[in-house]
Design goal:
Helix content: 25-40%
Largest sheet: 9 strands, mixed
Distance between the termini: 69 Å
Shape: globular
Number of domains: 3
Strand order of the largest sheet: 2-1-3-4-11-10-9-6-7
Radius of gyration: 27 Å
CATH superfamily of the largest domain: Class I glutamine amidotransferase (GATase) domain
Number of strands: 24
């Protein structure tokens, strides 16, 4: 007499055979999650910038329009799709332009070069304008006193920094090992620190060097930077945070993509077979299939990121396609060698460090992008000073690195590298116009294709509505997914 367990076993076996038949007969297709990506579109051609007659932002560069800071500031404004006018100093601004502008960004290393007769200070005090000094290297002591600097004690080397809540989407963040030079200054009591030194020693609070602060100045406000944040593109998060602090509700387009690329993966044609056999008792194919991918898949799952590869192999065989199938099961893809160069790479290299973490968190906050690329030749014996660089050491460092740079950025959607590029193309095309109201925001977007993403920094409540979805990603931050060229976003007081 058959037991119940026997009936269950027979039934399970029947369904197993039936499922096997469906798959291999073509009547059942397995969905690995890789066919839901955006359709491919052309990249928007680079257009020559036409300066508007009036704009909300005015960049004053003094005699240094081609300085790194001036160029980076203008590129960040372009990326955030903000209109601006660039002038050498305040004397070149018409009355109409002064009235229309709300924010004056001073990139001149000596601010008094751009502010003859202290006209900017008057505009802040009497007309409620905002002044943002991106680089204070020292100069007119009396002028700097107006900005809040009581004393300057030369240049100091600092260990790291703390960014206070409200500036970055991630909230309060700090970096212990991020060495930089800054002026050793003391501020007056009217200043509010937004970023300050983080010391490895027990330094008294009042002696910690301020790196970014704001100060109410009459009916306007002054923001000042005492750090090297805007000499490179990594300052986009701080820049966006300062502009957001100037408004009750601040919006800017973002990519909304967290992606990871393994360069030269899979690639075992040029690997050191002798080393593979000596260290792992495997040939390169088995090493990639049995050791590298399971570990990488586990890392990707733990950090909520999809892993893509880019292969340079000329002769693709069954082993290659087996590895590709492995990656598809985790929604990953393999790109050809001439693909994947469009999406900006925020972080490279397997070694962890606060510098990488700061850069990734800044890009995630200011551009909605967290992307990293790892050259896998370093562990296949075809690159690097140590030909016997083994996977155990590499994987520990790599796992820590991936954890550090992605852990605070999981509010961005995990996508494969190709999907990230398509989102980046749409980010490049979009030209939004925001019209603010008391209970709603009208958003019109030129260059709309099918979807784009928008960051909203506000302490108000954002409600879902037709044509867009809402995700709360921080205390005062939201991410919108917009699927129409025009939407009305409902807002209310909390």
């Amino acid at each position: 007499m058959l037991k119940i367990s026997d009936y269950i076993a027979v039934t399970a076996g029947f369904f197993g055979i039936f499922l096997f038949y469906l798959i291999f007969s073509g009547n059942l297709a397995l969905d690995y999650g890789t066919d839901n990506s955006l359709p491919e579109i052309e990249q928007a051609p680079a257009a020559e910038r036409v300066e508007p007659q009036t704009a909300e932002y005015i960049v004053l560069h003094g005699n240094e329009m081609e300085s790194r800071i001036s160029i980076q500031v203008m590129q960040m404004l372009d990326g955030m799709k903000k209109t601006y006018i660039a002038k050498a100093d305040v004397s070149g601004i018409s009355r109409e332009q002064m009235d229309a502008a709300r924010v004056f960004i001073i990139t001149a290393q000596e601010p008094e070069q751009a502010d003859q007769g202290q006209e900017l200070l008057r505009l802040a005090q009497e007309e409620g304008k905002y002044l943002f000094y991106t680089c204070l290297l020292g100069g007119d002591t009396a002028y700097e006193r107006e900005l809040g600097i009581l004393e300057s004690r030369g240049v100091a080397q600092i260990d790291g920094m703390m960014i206070f809540e409200g500036l970055m989407v991630q909230g309060t963040v700090y970096y212990d090992d991020l060495p930089m030079e800054a002026r050793d200054i003391a501020l007056d009591s009217a200043c509010t620190k937004m970023i300050q030194e983080k010391s490895k020693t027990d330094k008294m609070q009042r002696l910690l060097i301020p790196l970014l602060w704001k100060k109410q100045y009459g009916s306007g406000r002054i923001y000042c930077c005492n750090g090297p944040f805007f000499s490179k593109d990594g300052g986009i998060g701080i820049f966006a945070g300062v502009l957001a602090d100037m408004e009750e509700t601040f919006l800017y387009p973002v990519v909304n993509a967290g992606a990871l690329l393994l360069d030269y993966y899979p690639d075992y044609e040029n690997s050191d077979r002798e080393m593979m056999q000596k260290l792992y008792s495997r040939d390169p194919v088995m090493f990639v299939r049995d050791i590298i991918w399971p570990a990488m898949d586990k890392m990707g799952y733990a950090e909520g990121v999809i892993i893509s590869g880019r292969s340079y192999m000329e002769n693709k065989n069954d082993d290659y396609y087996d590895i590709e199938t492995q990656m598809k099961r985790s929604r990953g893809i393999i790109l050809e060698k001439d693909r994947g160069g469009l999406l900006p790479v925020v972080c490279e290299g397997h070694m962890p460090g606060d510098g990488k973490r700061w850069r990734m968190e800044s890009f995630a906050s200011g551009m909605g992008l967290a992307s990293s690329c790892y050259d896998m030749r370093e562990i296949m014996g075809s690159k690097g000073e140590d030909p016997a660089y083994e996977w155990a050491a590499y994987s520990r460092e790599l796992s820590k690195n991936i954890h550090d740079i992605y852990r605070n950025n999981q509010f961005l959607e995990a996508v494969d590298w190709q999907e990230g590029e398509e989102r980046f193309k749409r980010y490049g095309k979009i030209q939004p116009v925001f019209t603010m109201g008391q209970e709603q925001i009208l958003i019109k977007a030129e260059g709309f294709v099918d979807v784009w993403y928008c960051m909203v920094r506000t302490d108000k409540e954002i409600h879902e509505g037709p044509g867009y979805g809402v995700q709360r990603i921080g205390k005062d931050a939201y991410l919108l997914e917009i699927t129409s060229s025009q939407v009305v976003v409902k807002i209310s007081e909390v």
